[in-house]
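Q: Focus on the shape:
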Amino acid sequence: MGCVDAEQVTMLREVLAASGWLDRTREFGRALRVTSRTPGGLLLVGTPAEDPWHLAAHLDDESRLGELPGLSPTLVRWSPPPGAPAHLRVGLERLEAARRGETLFVVAGENAPVPLLERVDDARRTGATVLALESGDRELRGLAHEALTVPADETLVSFEGAQHLVSAAAGEEPAARQGRGLRRRLARLLETVSGPTLD
């Protein structure tokens, strides 16, 4: 666990459990895991201001470590540069091809713009499952089959911290929830949120 000891992880788990965040992110992570079973069928998109790079990397890690190929996301970008590698130049047209059996995961720390909402609505109509991690966007939440809201005034878990919790929960097997895998993931989260040590 590096600089994070078991006592710190236990403390973080107790604080988050008391707040309900662990349960909420586990439920959302489970929805992500069970709907994302088709390799290449998890479409991850953010807003024009921010592509969810960090979450894409964590989901890819969870996919590899947990042998869950459906969790490896296709990062859909608003303005992919033409010279980028193939996996980094997937544009919004991919959302137009979304179909039944695929999952569209929208990550929006701000209100989703109308062009994104329209594409999400279209994807839902063609049978894709829509999940949303948002910060109070009622329109986006209304289009999603499952949504997790991180209020802008939330003090315990940041929007980035919630992404860490969701990715860890998505890769977590139900029987292993209390095991070493969760402790390792919480240790990573603690280091990200609080730095290598706690005062």
Observations:
- The chain has one domain: 6-194.
- Helices lie at 6-19, 21-35, 53-65, 93-96, 114-125, 138-143, 159-170, 180-194.
